[in-house]
Design goal:
alpha/beta; Rossmann fold; 2 domains; six-stranded parallel β-sheet; 15 helices; 35% helix; 15% strand; globular
Length: 372
């Protein structure tokens, strides 16, 4: 009986051959960048992706390959970056989709293929990198993060690449990207300016009746967001402002305990791109560490991030050399800072201990300072 893993190993080279035939002997051209992160990762990448432009020759196309779920924030990319998205999980289960996708990536006939991720899945994003690298003149990635389950396959894939770059440790995500760009381009990238491209910031501010504070209480999981009582305390303190709750599709359904607060304050639910005029008009955004928070900080609106200490050092706080002045990050002091979610402490209800320790009074104090 042939296993799914063995079947994928057989299919992939056949897909590369099928894609190669569609190139019709044309020489490779263009730069492909692959990023498998989430919505917030894509927003931060948009602020630093220009560091990789020197890899492309003048006039060459630059493609950025993302997973399907991250398409919602792909608009933030600066001009000249063509975004492609695929369903990474379907690559694992749908044989026909896998063959068609890998053949398509190979048919792009890219001259250079670079993965921007440290942790890669050998049958998902790494498989897409292998398809592009099959015909590329140059291919590169970080030495993959150790993963006992897939170590052998990751090592085999790595041998197919032109260059592997050591990961600087410790280093936040942005610092890893800048290190990779410097290693591959041979020049030190400019210190990034963590803001959206001017083409996205030229929107007209929304007209609001009164000075407004926006609350974005929802994180990707409930263990990373303060409870309803925390936000109610903030709302009571800032009663001289209009306060609105920002919510994404399904957020209130997943968090029924917020429905009463949402009905009292009012809810704004709209696509990320359509939040920009609102951010341009708001006085302050108070948000959990989420894609909405990153979009707010990159738009220039004063932003207070309520962050789990578990992820300190991976994304936030930003390095002082490039941290945007409009962003303040609130973290609980924890001896286990930076555990990346591998929490050994008992949860408080549904929260990480470090989230439960976030103090509403301290958030109010910081917010008052930011409001001037």
């Amino acid at each position: 009986m042939i296993t799914k893993r063995r079947l994928r190993a057989l299919i992939d080279p056949l897909a590369w051959k099928a894609g190669e035939r569609r190139c019709h002997g044309r020489p490779p051209k263009g730069l492909l960048l692959i990023e498998a992160g989430g919505l917030g990762d894509v927003l931060l990448l948009a602020a630093v992706i220009d560091a990789f432009r020197p890899l492309a020759r003048e006039g060459e196309p630059i493609r950025l390959l993302l997973r399907k779920e991250s398409a919602k924030t792909a608009f933030a990319m600066p001009p000249g970056i063509a975004v492609e998205t695929f369903d990474f999980y379907r690559l694992m289960t749908d044989v026909r989709y896998r063959f068609q996708t890998l053949a398509e990536v190979r048919s792009w006939n890219m001259r250079q293929a670079v993965s921007l991720d440290w942790r890669r899945h050998p049958w998902m994003d790494d498989a897409l990198l292998m398809a592009a690298a099959d015909g590329a003149e140059f291919s590169a990635a970080f030495h993959p993060k150790p993963w006992p389950k897939f170590g052998r396959r990751l090592e085999d894939n790595a041998k197919r690449l032109t260059r592997l770059v050591e990961v600087p440790r410790p280093a936040a995500m942005i610092e890893r990207w800048l290190h990779l760009a410097q290693a591959l381009c041979g020049q030190t990238p400019d210190t990034p300016n963590l803001r959206l491209h001017d083409s996205h910031l030229s929107v007209t501010p929304e007209i609001l009746d009164r000075p407004t504070i926006l609350f974005s209480p929802f994180a990707s999981s409930r263990d990373r967001q303060p409870m309803t009582s925390f936000w109610a305390e903030l709302a009571a303190e800032f009663s001289e402002f209009d306060i609105r709750l920002l919510a994404g599709p399904g957020d209130l359904k997943r968090n029924p305990d917020f429905i009463s607060l949402a009905e009292r304050l009012g809810v704004i639910e709209r696509p990320f791109l359509q939040l920009l005029p609102l951010f341009k008009a708001a006085r302050l955004v108070i948000a959990t560490d989420s894609a909405t928070m990153h979009l707010a900080s990159l738009s220039g609106v004063p932003t207070l991030s309520l962050s789990a200490a578990a992820y300190a050092g991976e994304m936030l706080p930003h390095a002082p050399s490039y941290a945007p002045a409009n962003l303040k990050v609130m973290l609980a002091g924890m001896p286990c800072l930076g555990c990346i979610g591998d929490c050994t402490l008992p949860f408080r209800g549904e929260q990480y201990e470090c989230v439960a320790r976030l103090d509403a009074g301290e958030a109010i104090r910081i917010a008052r300072e930011m409001l001037g």
